[in-house]
Amino acid sequence: MKPVIQAPPMMEEVLDAEERASLKARIKTLMKQQDAVLVAHYYTSADLQDLAEETGGCVSDSLEMARFGHTHPARTLIVAGVKFMGETAKILNPEKRVLMPDLGAECSLDLACPADQFSAFCDAHPDRLSVVYANTSAEVKARADWVVTSGIAVKIVKYLHQQGRKLLWAPDRHLGEYVRRVCGADMILWQGSCVVHEAFKAEALKALHAAHPGAAVLVHPESPEPVIALADVVGSTTQLIEAVRTLPNAEFIVATDNGIFHKMHAAAPGKTLIEAPTAGEGATCVSCAHCPWMAMNGLRKLAAVLESAAGDKTSANEIHVDESVGRRARRSIQKMLDFAAAEKAGRIQLGD
C-alpha cells in the first residue's frame, strides 16, 4: 500500500532589499561569533544559497553537504535543507553542533518510510540486502545495509547485482524502478515517492517539448517512469546542473525542484530554463515544482536560530542523533563513501 503524505502549505519567505541586507549582516556576525558554517541544498532559496557561498560554506546535494561539514573546521554546522540532511550531517560529524532553520522541514520520502515498518520489511526478507536512498531517517539508515544517493545508486546496485545479491529498496519507488531497469537487479521496492517529482506529468511534458523542440529535457530519477522516458538526461541534482553547463542546447526543460534554477543560471547564465509541468491543461497550477518543506528555510528563521543558540546555549533547533543509531547509520553511509573512492580509483570495475 502506498503511504499517503500530507504536505504543508507553501510558505515561502518574501523579503525586501533592506530587510534582506539587515538579516544577512546580522547572520554573518552571529556565524563568526559561533564558529559556524552554512551548508545549503540546491532546493533552498536563492538567499540562503548566496549566503552560504558568501560566508565560505557550500551549496550542493545532501551528501556533499555532510562531507563538506566533515572537512570544514567550524564547530557548528548550519544545515539549510530538510531534516534528514541535518541528521546525515550529524551522523558524519557527531562531535559538531548541527543546527537547522526549521526542524519541521521534513521530507515526504522520509515520512513515507517509518523505521519500525522498514525494519519489519527487512525482517520479512532476510535473504536480501537492504539499500536505502539518502532521503531517510537516521533510524532507517541504521537498519539498512547500504545508503545511496541518486548519483551513485545505479553503480552500487549494479555492483551488488554482479555479486549475485537480491535487494530490498526504499523508499522511492520511482528511483528504485529506474535503477532496476538500468541494472536488471532483483529488487523489491518500498512504495514511497517524492511529492514534488511524482507531480510531473508526461503528456503535458510532451506538449511543452513540442512547443520547444530544441530544448533538452532534464529529469531527476525520482520522477515517474513515463516522464523519465522523455528525458535527454536523467541524473542527480549535481548531474543536471552539469548538463545545463555542458550541453549545447539553448533551452532546457527541467523536471526537478525549481530551487535548482538558481545554481543552473549561475552555471550557464546565457541559457533558458523552463519548468516541467506538474499538471495538465486547465489546471490552476501549470508548474508548482517546489518542495513546501524546503520552503520552510529562510533568513528570518536562520537569524532566530543563531540568536537562540548564542553563547553555546542549547537550541531547540539543534539536531540530535542517538549515539548507537548514529554509529550504525555511519557504517551504512561509509560503505557508499568507500565504494565511491574505490570506483574512482579503478579498484572496482563495473563493466557495461
Task: Note down, in words, how this protein is organized.
This protein is 42% helix and 13% strand. It is α/β, with parallel strands linked by helices and 352 residues long. The strands form 3 sheets. The chain has a 4-stranded parallel β-sheet, sandwiched between helices. The protein has a 4-stranded parallel β-sheet with strand order 6-5-7-8, with helices on both faces. Helix 4 (83-92) links the parallel strand 3 (76-80) and strand 4. The longest helix is centred in the C-terminal third of the chain and has 22 residues, at 323-344. The relative contact order is 0.16. The mean pLDDT is 92.
Write the layout of secondary structure elements.
Layout: H1 17-33, E1 36-41, H2 46-54, E2 58-60, H3 62-71, E3 76-80, H4 83-92, E4 97-99, H5 108-111, H6 115-123, E5 129-133, H7 138-143, E6 146-148, H8 153-162, E7 167-170, H9 173-183, E8 187-189, H10 202-211, E9 216-219, H11 225-228, E10 233-234, H12 237-246, E11 251-255, H13 261-267, E12 272-275, H14 299-308, H15 323-344
Parallel strand pairs: 1-2, 1-3, 3-4, 5-6, 5-7, 7-8, 9-10, 9-11, 11-12
